[in-house]
Amino acid sequence: MHIREILADRETKFSFEYFPPKTSAAEDALFHAVADLQRFDPAFVSVTYGAGGTTREATRGLVHRLTHETKINTIPHLTCIGHSHRDVEELLEKYAEIGVSNILALRGDPPQKVGKIVQGDFPHASDLVRFIRRFSERNGHDFGIGVAGFPEGHPGTPNRIMEMELLKAKVDEGADYICTQLFFDNHDFYDFRDRCEMTGIDLPILAGIMPVTCITGLHRMAELAAGARFPAKLMRALARANGDSEAVRRIGIHYATAQCADLLNHDVRGIHFYTLNQSSSTTEIFRNLGNGALV
Question: What is the pTM (predicted TM-score) of this model?
Fold first, then answer.
């Protein structure tokens, strides 16, 4: 189903993100998590694409399996760095063949611990959006296109005015929706949403939420998000846990639940959960939000 159809009404949508497993045991665990969350009838799931395309085949394999073994709309991530036009065209052709209807187009990160980075044919995510849109026009396969938004600001673009101009460029090239980076202060999201409106961006904006479930995960989030802000009230609560892993997990779920409830009260178009291939924390958040009847 095309993303425009999925997001056609004003009802808040829920979606989940997964990454390609590295082992068969991890793949089995992933599909258990997918089955567990499928009862919530998510609008879609997305599958990440490793830095520099390092999980290209694994991503495509997981997308293929999810598309054919579940009833969930599956959206693969696709990144720019190190990719030629032909690389991307071949991937789009394969996705079209298996019935994928949507792509999340991202600039992406260079792979770690490598020498010279090959930039490829796409300097910016807007170039990738343009290429996907033109592919759709040439081949008669209308891909829906999502792009990233950064409520706390893009780490590579300190100039916040220029940041919005770059986002507007992605929209003007043919994006259909925006999915945000994770954040922990909803005021950042509301400010971002207002700035989008002021910039003339009129697309559904999905809020990215990742519950803190352990202290090591907290540090990993800070690294992955390249500068995520952790509000003092969250850090104080985690400090009171005094290293108790179960207390940390409960605090993280409670905090994410409060975030989601507030977002729902402010008419968010969608909430996108970064699941880390787990289902239990997201399931608890749904229960806390009053969705226990679905469990």
Answer: 0.93
